[in-house]
Every structure is written in C-alpha cells, then in structure tokens.
User: Which sequence fits this backbone?
C-alpha cells in the first residue's frame, strides 16, 4: 500500500510540475463511428434489445474485426460516465453509450464482443437513455441482463467470460449496477473500474454505507481493476476498512485527466490493463459467477 500511495503522490507532483496528460503519448486507435445498420465484423452499431422500443432506449454493439460465426468471444459490457462534462484540460464526456471507449481500447477491435449499455430513465413520454446518474435502476438492470443474454446467444459472447467496465459514473456502476442484487451479480468474470469507485465516497442514490457494503460482499473474491487519475488512495482506504477480501488491482495513472481516452494511446498502463484482461479471461471461473457458485 505504501508503494502504491508513493507512486500516486509522485504522479501528482510530476503532473502538476509538467502539466502531463495522456495526450503526450502516441495515439494508435480510433474508435469506429456508430452506424445505424446491421451488426457485422468491425462495425459499431445501434441496437435495442427485444422488449424495449428504440431509438430512445438503445445500446451500441461492436463485433470484433475477426468475428466468426460459431466462435466464442469474451464480452465487455461498458457503462458511460455522466454528461455533459467538460473541464479546463479539455476532457469531456457526453454521458452517451456512443461515447464509450474503454472496451475498444482494451481489445484493439479484435477478439472481444463489446457492448456499451445505457442507464434508463422514465419520462412523461416513456423510457430513454439517461445522460446523468442512474435513472430507473430496475429498468437499467433488466436491460443489462436481457442484453447480456442476447449478446451471448446471438453474437458469440461467452457467458463464462463477461466483464463489466466503466468510466466515472460507469466505474461506480460496476458495483452499483453489476452487484446490485444476487441475480445480476452472477453475470461477471471481472470488473474494470476507471476513475471513481462505489463506496470511496457518497454518491447520489448509493443507498448508504450498509447498501454499498452489501453490494461489495457479492463480489465473492472476483478480480477488479481499479484505476484513477494520480492516486487510488480513496478506493484503497475504503476497501481496507470493510474487511472484505478480493482480487483488487490498483493502478494510479500518471496524469490528472478525468477521462478514459488514455486507452486509445500506446502507454504502459494500457498494456498492463490488456495483460490483466487476458489473464482474467483465461482463468477458471471464480465462485460467485454464473458458472461458479452463488452470490448472496
């Protein structure tokens, strides 16, 4: 822990001194544009899962360039941050499923089925994707579970290798949505949380400390990647205080940017994330997953 904290503090001093950010590293990936057409290898397309009506409720599906019928692929289910967001460094987030990028940065467009899912809110006119916070949590969970089933049954997703990922609001959602109840908690092989974490501070609608801890206990030892700009101290401190044991990988980013765009750049932290993902995807399923034991 002392080493990790020192790395985070060193990064903070260096970033403040040098104005460092992820733009200083070479960018080697461009996320494919979203198209309103049928899924195909390499395409990123708008979809609405059966049981909902679009386009007010929709997700974005990307089939890898090497996608083939009859092959099983790991799946990344990604949730977006809050929007609209912009800061003085030029980092932005519009809160949309179209704006998600973590899954593409991890896969490089190959070997992984990637779906960017919405938080769903109720309006006078019906349901729609929510750009900010949780919307209707029950509806959001239902859409998630139905979409995971659809991706696995129709597009070659491997139900034993489904990951949940997100940036900012989406990072909090890895536990807030992904571990919200015993049923949805069984879906996941691993969790990728970049910039914020459920429980590291009070978030709107989190249900309070007892609810946060109940969600965390459904993790059942499964691996989580937890990264944050400059330091992961807040998440580490809270997790240590709970007494819960799990396979946490903490990574303090060497830049101050509140953004997920670093995954589109050739940098050591992305290489480490890809190595983590490949290792976890190759491991036997942990207890608490759909193919392991139960979550409580």
Assistant:
């Amino acid at each position: 822990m002392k080493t990790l904290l020192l790395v985070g503090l060193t990064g903070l001093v260096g970033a403040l001194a040098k104005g460092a950010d992820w733009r200083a590293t070479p960018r080697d990936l461009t996320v494919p544009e979203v198209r309103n057409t049928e899924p195909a290898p390499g395409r990123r397309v708008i979809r609405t899962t059966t049981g909902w009506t679009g386009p007010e409720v929709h997700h974005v599906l990307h089939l890898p360039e090497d996608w083939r019928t009859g092959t099983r692929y790991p799946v990344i289910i990604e949730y977006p941050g809050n929007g609209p967001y912009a800061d003085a460094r030029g980092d932005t987030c519009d809160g949309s499923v179209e704006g998600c990028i973590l899954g593409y940065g991890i896969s490089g467009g190959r070997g992984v089925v990637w779906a960017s899912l919405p938080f769903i809110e109720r309006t006078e006119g019906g349901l729609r994707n929510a750009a900010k916070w949780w919307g209707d949590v029950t509806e959001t969970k239902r859409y998630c579970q139905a979409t995971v089933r659809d991706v696995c049954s129709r597009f070659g997703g491997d139900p034993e290798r489904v990951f949940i990922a997100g940036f900012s609001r989406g990072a909090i959602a890895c536990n807030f949505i992904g571990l919200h109840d015993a049923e949805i908690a069984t879906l996941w092989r691993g969790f990728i949380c970049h910039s914020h974490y459920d429980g590291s501070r009070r978030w709107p609608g989190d249900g309070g400390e007892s609810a946060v801890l109940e969600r965390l206990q459904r993790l059942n030892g499964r691996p989580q990647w937890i990264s944050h700009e400059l330091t992961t101290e807040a998440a580490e401190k809270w997790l240590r205080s709970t007494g819960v044991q799990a396979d946490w990988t903490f990574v303090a980013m060497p830049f101050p940017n509140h953004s997920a765009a670093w995954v589109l750049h050739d940098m050591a932290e992305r290489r480490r994330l890809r190595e983590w993902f490949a290792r976890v995807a190759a491991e036997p399923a942990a207890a608490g997953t759909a193919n392991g034991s139960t979550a409580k």
